[in-house]
Structure formats: C-alpha cells, structure tokens
Amino acid sequence: MVSTFKQALDSGDFVITSEVGPPKGTNLEKMNHHLHLLHDKVTALNVTDHQSSVMRMPSIAGCLAVLEHGGVPILQMTCRDRNRLALQADLMFAYSRGVRDVLCLTGDAVPVGDHKEGKGVFDLDSVQLLKTIRLLESGKDLGGNELDGAVEFCAGAIVTPEAQPIEPQLAKFEKKVEAGAEFFQTQAVYDLDNYAKFMSYARKFPVKILAGIVLLSSARMAKYMTENVPGIFVPQPLIDELSRAPKGEALRVGIEIAGRMIAALKREKLCDGVHIMAINKEEVVPDIIAAAGL
Amino acid sequence: MKSITKQKPYTEVSQLLEGLDRVCVVGCGTCATTTKTGGIEEVTAMKERLQADGKLVTGFLVVPTACDEMTGEMESINAEAFRNAQSILVMSCALGVQRIASYLGRPVIPALDTMFIGMEMSEGSFFETCVQCGQCILGYTSGICPLAACHKGLLNGPCGGTNKGMCEVDKEKDCAFTLIYNRLKEQGRLELMSAYHPPKNHHVTLKPKSFKIST
C-alpha cells in the first residue's frame, strides 16, 4: 500500500493538510469530533507529538484514530522523547498499522512545556531521523541488523522561511533534502513577498513544499506570535485589519485572511499546497478552506 | 576547565548534618575558589554559620585542589581536626567530595552542587563548553561545540526555535548554530555547515567512563 498523500503530492494538485492534537487524558471525544469534521476535507492530517512539549496521548494513537475515521494521518515524530531504539520501534509499529506518512521534527525543548524538569532525549536529530527512515526502508536498522519486514514511508520535514538569520536554516534544509525528505511543511508565512524569495530558492530542490498557514484568531494573538514565536512575523497591516474587526468578529476576519492567503499562494503558484494550523480552533478549518475558494 | 558549583541551600546542609555535631569544613583552592563557592571566605562564613547553629567546628581549611590525590596528605597534616570531627563538610565539587570520602572512614557531606564543567568567559561568568563526549567535532564547527552550546545538543543545524540568532529556551543565549555559522563565514569555510554528522556513539567508553594510560 503506497502513501495516498504521496500520490496527491505527485499528482500536481494543490494539496491541503491540517492537524489535530491528541487529548491530554483518555477522553477522545474532542479529537474524534475534529477528525469527523476534517478527515475528508483535507488530503492528510498531521497528528502532533506532545506539541509544545506538553504531555498528551502519543501521536501514533491519534494516527490510528485518523485511520479509523477514514482519513490519512501524517505521523509527527519528534526526537525529544525517544532514543534511537524507541524511534525505530515506533516507526515499525506505525507502518504495521497502516501509517504511511511521517513528519520528522527535532521537537520543542522540554523546558517550554509542562514537564519542565524532564530530560530531553535528542539521541537523534531531525536529519538523522530522516536518514533512519531511509535505512529502515532498506531493511536494516541503526544497529546494522536485518529487519524481518521493512517500512516504506513518505517522509517530510519542516523549514522556517522567515528564520533570522536564514542561512543556517537553509543549510539544514539542504541536509534534510539530502537525507531523503520528500515534502516540507513550513512554519507560518504571512509575508508573501518574503516567502516568494524562499520559494525561488527552494524550487531548485526535488521536494514538495506546503506553506504553513496559522489562523490568526485576534490582533492580540497575532502580536503575541510576532513577539514570542520564533520564525513567525505577522506584518502590521494584518494586525491592524484584525484590530479593526468589530467585537466578536476577529475570528471571522482571521478566517478571511487565511483564506485570502491560501488563494494567493495557489494563484501565484508559490507552493504545492498548504498546511493549515488552526490551533485550538480546528473546527473552523473547513471555513478557511471555503474562504480560499477550494 | 573548571568544575562549576553552587552552594546548596543551607537548610539542606543543616539536614545532612543532623546528629553530626562535630564538623570539619574543607574548601578547595582551585575551581570552588574561582566560583566563590568554596574558597577561604566561603569556608570561613560556613564555619561561623555552623558555630552559630551550635556545631563544634573541629577545624577548617582550604586544600589546594580537593580532587587531587595529594589531598590525602592533608589528612595527616590536619590529623587532629579530622580525627575530632564526626563528619567532614566539603565545599568543593563532587570530585573533591569523592576524593575526600575515599580517604576518610566517616561521613563526608557535600556543601555544593556540581553543575557542569565549563570555562570562565568573562569575570564571574561561566559557561558549559564541553560535554566530554569522547568524539570531538570542534574541527567541523569552528571551535564551538553544539553539544554544549545548543540546548538540545543538536549536531546538524539549528532547530526551529532559533529566534533572531538567539535560543528559544533562553533569550539571552546565542543560538549555537548562528555562532558556528558566523565564525565559519569569517573563516571562509561555510562548506562545513553542510557536513552531515551521524548519530553520536554514546559508548566511546562504557559508562562509568574510565581510561588507563597504556605502558
């Protein structure tokens, strides 16, 4: 069974992914609700891996739930919580249960999360994890042993087009491509001119790029992200647009902005698709897609 | 290279010394003196605090280098102070504590917490610069070790948390890979940014690590 996500990427169609987070606790109701709403509206759904280093149910559990809903999961795997044995083990497990797409991430630092005294593992980094996937596909593990049954994944990674300075970020991007990344989902982009510059560089590489769209739900949130989230810069005109929204209408304006940006990215052929992140507002993702005219 | 220490909270020291009323205080003339955690001033202050708490301080001294095997000699020179003590309160890094504990058959109490091996980059500022991995990569990274200088100890480049050249975890700290990039650029050796580093071998020597000079 090949990855349907990979087929979609290769088809040249404009691909839409979004993401869901597993619950903190055993109550699956909210995640299942999001899966019910989203599974057939997007090509694939990322399942986050203890996002922001906040302990939750594992991403593989969320991926199984996506499959149960008939959707296509992208397993987010960070290097923060597992050593090389556990990472390989989880990749084999995921493959055996029908997961075909993986996003390799370093993972946020432990102290930014809710278990600040925990030990960050980082036995592998994201580049090494990508290479590990390619190795497992060859039927061998990192210890040099033969596997009884190999994996086969469409493997991706992330890149931050607005990182400052950008050069070390691009050097790592190229290492990820070299290590076997087939697709990239970017950190949120708002400045399309700047993003276009990144894309004119990235187009030189044989990878698919999905531009990151983070829903701005209020002017305050937009300002907070610009000031605090690395690699995210929301231009002032967008913040002003959100500020002007009548009371209770900021979210609607945010949805319009996201839709408008997706439409522009598609129209100007600036990417192969988009990855929509509507943090804690997953239920409006269909509205964003509709606002984009897709 | 220095062993960087901080003083334990006095309440913890006091708890560790419960029931041990005769105490000899030992400081270290090397690292703990530089970090102002176990030099003569701190040892004297500790002596006074213990006395104020009703302890009998049988002696107090600062040995030249507490982790050195010569520390054994100090035992005989200060025999009476040690003999009369029920416990030795050591104001050095854990190396010194373990050295002294190996000589004296009585409770040895650490007064300091050992945080890292580091360098003094400017007066009074110490930074972890080496994690003793046993496979030095400084030749590829312009003399800056990302295992020490990057919060996550990454090898192949910055994470997404790098923010205007600073680290997400500590906004005052430079991103290791920005530093490495800038220095390699100055040296005209940017091609080294593209070098792939494979996963580390964490068993260059088995833990606990040991080494014998071959003869």
What does this 3D model show about the protein?
The complex is a heterodimer of chains A (about 290) and B (about 220). Chain A is α/β, with parallel strands linked by helices and about 290 residues long. Chain A has a domain at about 5-160: TIM Barrel (Alpha-Beta Barrel), CATH 3.20.20. Helices cover about 40% and strands about 15% of the residues of chain A. An eight-stranded parallel barrel of chain A has the order 1-2-3-4-5-6-7-8, surrounded by six helices. In chain A, helix 4 (about 85-95) packs across helix 5, helix 8 (about 220-230) runs antiparallel to helix 9 and helix 9 runs antiparallel to helix 10 (about 250-265). The longest helix of chain A has 18 residues, at about 250-265. Chain A starts with a helix and ends with a helix. With about 220 residues, chain B is an alpha/beta fold. Chain B folds into two domains: about 1-115, 3-Layer(aba) Sandwich (Rossmann fold), CATH 3.40.50; about 130-195, no CATH class. Chain B has eight helices and seven strands. Chain B has helices at about 10-15, 30-35, 40-50, 70-75, 80-85, 95-105, 145-150, 175-185; strands spanning about 1-5, 20-30, 55-65, 85-90, 110, 110-120, 125-130. In chain B, the strands form two sheets. A four-stranded parallel β-sheet of chain B has the order 3-2-4-5, sandwiched between helices. In chain B, strands 1-6-7 form a three-stranded antiparallel β-sheet, with no helix packed on it. Chain B is elongated, with a radius of gyration of 21 Å. Chain B starts with a strand and ends in a 29-residue tail after the last helix. The mean pLDDT of chain B is about 95. The interface of A and B includes residues 111 and 120 of A.
